[in-house]
Amino acid sequence: MSVSDLSGVQIPPGVAVWVDRLMLVFLGLFVLWVVLKAIGFAMRRSYNLTPVATASSRDIRPDFL
Fold it and tell me: Got the DSSP string for 11-55?
């Protein structure tokens, strides 16, 4: 089932091909974005990194000092 068949709007066949391809590209980019966000979250969790905004206000000191 193509994306252009999902609504009741009549789309010319030539345009429907481009709409279907464009929707697949956007879907692929969205899936890639979700996967990269999940990987980034997992990496931050594994290295125990926190964003600067959520860090405490104490003085920053390296662990080896």
Answer: --HHHHHHHHHHHHHHHHHHHHHHHHHHHHHHHHHHTT---GGGS
